[in-house]
Description:
The complex is a heterodimer.
Chain A: H1 2-33, H2 38-43, H3 49-59, H4 65-78, E1 80-84, E2 87-91, H5 106-141, H6 146-160, H7 163-177, H8 192-226, H9 229-236, H10 241-269, H11 273-279, H12 284-293, H13 297-325
Antiparallel strand pairs in A: 1-2
Helix pairs in contact in A: 1-13, 5-6, 5-8, 5-10, 5-13, 6-8, 7-8, 7-11, 8-10, 9-10, 10-13, 11-12, 12-13
Chain B: H1 16-25, H2 35-45, H3 47-64, H4 66-72, H5 115-151, H6 153-168, H7 171-181, E1 185-186, E2 189-190, H8 192-223, H9 226-233, H10 238-274, H11 286-293, H12 301-329
Helix pairs in contact in B: 2-12, 3-5, 3-12, 4-5, 5-6, 5-8, 5-10, 6-8, 7-8, 8-10, 9-10, 10-11, 10-12, 11-12
Amino acid sequence: MLAYLIRRLFAAAVMLAVIIMVVFCIFFLVPKWAGVDVATSFVGKQADPAAVEAVRQKLGLGDPIYQQVWAFFKGIFAGRTYAGGGDVTHCAAPCFGYSFRSEQAVWPVLTDRFPVTLGLALGAAVLWLVFGVAAGVLSALKRGSLWDRGAMVVALAGVSLPIYFTGLLSLAVFAFGLKWIDAQYVPLDESFTGWFGGMILPWITLAFLYAAMYARITRANMLEILGEDYIRTARAKGLGEPVVIGKHAMRSTMTPILTMLGMDLGALIGGAILTETTFSLPGLGQAVLNGIKNQDLPIILGVTLITSLAVLIANLVVDVLYAVIDPRVRLS
Amino acid sequence: MTAPLHEPTAEAAPSAAEEAAVATAGEKAVQGRSLGRIAWERLKRDKLALTGGVVVLVLIVIALLAPVLTNLVGQDPDAYHENLIDPLFGTPTGSLGGVSGDHLLGVEPVNGRDIFARILYGAQISLLVGFLSAVVAVIFGTVLGILAGFFGGWVDSLISRVMDGLLAFPQLLFIIALVSVMPNEMLGLTGSSVRVFVMILVIGFFGWPYIGRVVRGQTLSMREREYVEAARSLGAGRLYILFKELLPNLVAPIIVYTTMMIPTNILTEAALSFLGVGVKPPTASWGQMLSNAIDYYDSDPMYMVVPGVAIFITVLAFNLFGDGVRDALDPKGSR
């Protein structure tokens, strides 16, 4: 078990390094091919050459790319000192650099925005797991019934609706039309009810989309597993239906669902870009979108790192949970 | 199941004499049926899937004929109609976002462009990106999946690791990043066509592992089947086995995954345009219309509803059709 964990952690670390390098390449090499200078785009269009050169010196933009990647990694663990152009700035660890645009340090931006996204992702995940899996299991058990058909029609509609459309629609109806909800984001430490009220529409819209996907997949899995021999055996030896379904069938049904949950939750924690844009939530997704539009590399790197970390950790947790849920899986 | 997609030659119409014999015997002749034929007959009975397929066809025709259709109603997607806009609020005058005999789906706020015409032109972008990115994904996925499954060894390890890596990537983030750093002019293309080209490539690139994984798995399991072994023992070369024995058997799963991938790609294109990294204005796109509609969701809800419903109908039709194709081609299907 320990050896397995260490191997997985090592693979995760390699993956992280690869992702960081890919991001560096996207934002340094592609502009280079396109003939755009990063230092110039940092200073502005009408910059004098001396200022551009100073920025290039200070941020190390003239260095070879591997040196820049190395400096970035070192900054995270040991802090980083920017010198050149006459002034010296020290950035304490964990240093993710300074935003090219606002000149704020990136780390506080990340820690400010992380709770918003985490709250959104976790709240929605609880909703969609409960409703999606329940709807899928019920549909499979009552295959062909009115409930099954109704649920699957709703689920099909759910996966066909873009989240920014359902989000806008829910805003128009519940926040503007019926005035049930004040759709304004309020930080959790200011007011719990305000936070809850502001998050409820994003939670429901996000959960609706994922619940639809999970219901369809749960139903398909469950139907396949109900046809397996070991379910027949369980019934034949006289187990009650609740035990057959709850203990035997559910376990195998949940394994692929868990894989999906790991990936989806990881990706969402790293920024639910569409949901956050639709509802103007100040989360990581909004930060990275702004970063991309402004070519603000440090912000993009920071969020990407957190996203990838979240995806990797979520996958790791899921793999370990496999062994708990599915007795057929043995970690070796 | 040896090469089931070949049309069996024995399927030729039975001769009149045979038919008469069968008729006198009072039995129905047992006909050999190809997988394609079985699938088509199953699909024909699936009303929902057929409806989806018909809607898809209609959408394709609409997209192809967009210039003709807009001319027919006398509209231009880029013409401003500021006389139809309330100067105080910037929203269209008249009910339902300015719906009238001239403007079938109303006009946009502020500049008064005809929404019907823009929806038709938007269909071009959605379908073009949806289809072609799926084609890119299928080409990459099939070639690399077969390479991995057929050759095994380090080729397989390398390709499989890359696929795992791509699937674990935060995809939307990278798609946005890649699309946004691409230059505005390349390969002789300018403006929106660059963006369309880049979107097709990038969405297709992130889509190939889904197909590659399936193709690799199928190739792996089929490589060891008896009919491949039989071909090999008869002296068939690798290329012959690849193209004559394996590829025909891969057609069914590839078709299924392609039809399921197109709606996802259409949603991704709409999302990119919604986030402002898709096609550039004034080119019409559904995602971009929705993104503009954010500011008017309270004062002019029609502006948001029309492109939203357009995306919904398109994606739903593809999903219905895709589900039907999957059920029809699935040998385990019970229907």
